[in-house]
Write a structure and sequence with these properties.
Keywords: Membrane, Transmembrane, Transmembrane helix, Transport
Mean pLDDT: 84
Largest sheet: 2 strands, antiparallel
Membrane topology: Multi-pass membrane protein
Strand content: under 5%
Subcellular location: Cell membrane
Transmembrane segments: 12-30, 54-74, 86-104, 110-129, 141-163, 183-202, 261-286, 302-323, 330-355, 367-393, 405-428, 434-454
Domain Major facilitator superfamily (MFS) profile: 17-458
Amino acid sequence: MATQYTHHEHLGHVVFIAAAAAIGGFLFGYDSSVINGAVVGIQRYFQVGSVETGFVVAIALLGSALGAWAGGGLADRWGRTRSMQFAALLFAVSSIGQMLPFAIWDLAFWRVIAGFAIGMASVLGPAYIAEVAPPAYRGRLGSFQQLAIVLGIAVSQLVNYVIARLAGGDVNNDVWLLQAWQWMLGACVVPALLFLLFALNIPESPRFLIMSGRTRRAREVLAEIEADDVDLDGRISEIQRVLRTERVPGLKDLRGPAMGLLPIVWIGIVLSAFQQLVGINVIFYYSSVLWQSVGINQSDSLLISFSSSIINIIGTAIAIALVDRIGRKPLLLIGSAGMAVGLATAAWAFSFAGAKGASVALPDPQGAIALVAANLFVLFFALSWGVVVWVLLGEIFPNRIRAAALGIAAAAQWVANWLITVSFPALAEWNLPLTYAMYALFAVLSFFFVTKWVKETKGRKLEDMG
């Protein structure tokens, strides 16, 4: 009984460490969603059109792709925690920069810096959590990344709502010397400093410590995070054996026979791309605009957007409960099927839209059906692809290439995210039902991809991957 008890004491410590590392995910959710509330304000303040605004919204994602790509290398050079501290500092500085821009290009510059920091955190979090979590809990702890992202989205929507209320409902009104939208962007500095504080207080990953020759410290960290009945010397020599074949992995280590890359790297890239190509971020970046386009007024559309965030959090909680029980692959398949149904239904409902003055209106049952279908899509995404992709990216790569491969896969995710974000306004103007049908098609394709290519990783040690 004693081992059980002490093991759970350790588990509390591991949960704390994993949660601290996942705050990077919170920053990602917060920043990507905060812009939703500030868009109109930026447009009016700088008197720019929708093209420039779209560019400023989406450019952070390109910064993130760069950060994700560089993050793996920095993590292997400086260590996981030092790299997190750097990302947190960058993010804090960029929040102040975004809050006080003197021109639209200046705002775009700070958004690229913020994006770079988030991209780094998006790689560091899952890699670090996978390296400190005991195999039996790794799926649940890996899910913290996505839980943090959805919490970040929800909190930023609440903060935006409160700031907009203080400004009397207009984001261009002044609140204490600055316009409301500037405060929205500046508020990001709070979670950034929190992330920095936590990153200064969590131990370095045992795998990195062993990699850099600090075996005694690695042993201390392993003693803190592994169950009491685990043979620590055995674990250390096992990690050393795996690392012996390792150098700091570079892009050349990812080369392989399949179109220039190892097959497992392609699997990571395609998983990442599908996570975005189903169009999930359209719901979060443009949701209030979307609901207004089907005849819902502005304040109600903000509330509907917030309710989607709540559904997102519920779905994520379901995934965390199931990912180590039923496994990664079944969850992905359930999600693909559910998303395809939700998206296809939304596409069908939007095809009934008729013009009503300047806006679009949906007739009676279809309007309600579109709303339910969109939220069904969010639920199925959250309980599957939202969580499981991050868990798998932390797990599927062999130790030797994990950081570098995760960097490439996460960069692919940011690029896919950028493509969807940049193309949606034009596609929706051209044909909204067809746009949703296209996302539905990607959901169907993702089902077949998982069936054929994705292997189950539930309960396997990281040293056995590859």
